[in-house]
Design brief:
By secondary structure, this protein is of the alpha/beta class. The chain has a single domain, classed as Transcription Regulator spoIIAA, CATH 3.30.750.24. The protein is about 50% helix and about 15% strand. The chain has a 5-stranded mixed sheet with strand order 1-2-3-4-5. Helix 2 runs parallel beside helix 3. The longest helix is centred in the N-terminal third of the chain and has 29 residues. The protein starts with a helix and ends in a 16-residue tail after the last helix.
Length: about 160
C-alpha cells in the first residue's frame, strides 16, 4: 500500500510541475506583446527583468511580427525594466542586431537616468543604437524617419454612439 501511495503522490507532483511550467511559458508569451502602433512601426514594451529565456521569446515575437507586418521600425521600450546590467544590455544588443538583419531599424526607448548611468559605468557601447528617453520621443523619431506627420486639427470629429 505504501508503494501505491508513493507512486500516486509522485504522479500528482509531476502533473503539477508540468502545469506550472506550461503556465510560466504562457505568462512569458503574454508579457511580451508586440504592438502595431502605426503602419510600419512596432512597439514592444518590456516590463520586468530580462533573462536569457525571456529575451529569446522577446526576440522571436518581435522578428515574427516584423515579417508578418513588413514593419521597418521597431521600438523596444524598457521603461518597465527595473535595472539594466551587462547581461540585459547584451540581450538588448542582440535583439537590435537580429531586428536589423530582418531589415528593420530598432530604437530603444525608456532610458531613465539611472539606466544611462549604469550603462556608462559598465562601459557598454550603445553608440550605434538609436536610444530615446521616452516612448513618445521614439515614436516621434520613427515618424520623421518614415516621413510621416501628425498635426492637430481644428476640426472636431463627431462620434455616434
Amino acid at each position: 500500500m505504501d508503494n501505491l501511495s508513493i507512486v500516486t503522490f509522485e504522479t500528482f507532483i509531476k502533473g503539477r510541475e508540468e502545469v506550472i511550467l506550461r503556465q510560466t511559458d504562457e505568462i512569458a508569451e503574454i508579457s511580451t506583446p508586440v504592438i502595431r502602433v502605426w503602419d510600419g512601426i512596432l512597439a514592444l514594451p518590456i516590463i520586468g527583468t530580462l533573462d536569457s529565456s525571456r529575451t529569446q521569446i522577446v526576440m522571436e515575437n518581435l522578428l515574427q511580427e516584423i515579417v508578418e507586418t513588413g514593419s521597418s521600425i521597431a521600438i523596444l521600450d524598457i521603461s518597465g525594466v527595473p535595472a539594466v546590467d551587462s547581461l540585459v544590455a547584451q540581450h538588448l544588443i542582440k535583439t537590435v542586431s537580429a531586428t536589423r538583419l530582418m531589415g528593420a531599424e530598432c530604437i530603444i526607448s525608456g532610458i531613465r537616468p539611472e539606466i544611462a548611468q549604469t550603462v556608462v559605468h559598465l562601459g557598454i557601447d550603445l553608440s550605434n543604437i538609436i536610444t530615446k528617453a521616452t516612448l513618445a520621443s521614439a515614436l516621434s523619431y520613427a515618424f520623421k524617419v518614415l516621413r510621416l506627420e501628425v498635426r492637430k486639427s481644428n476640426v472636431i470629429a463627431k462620434t455616434n454612439f
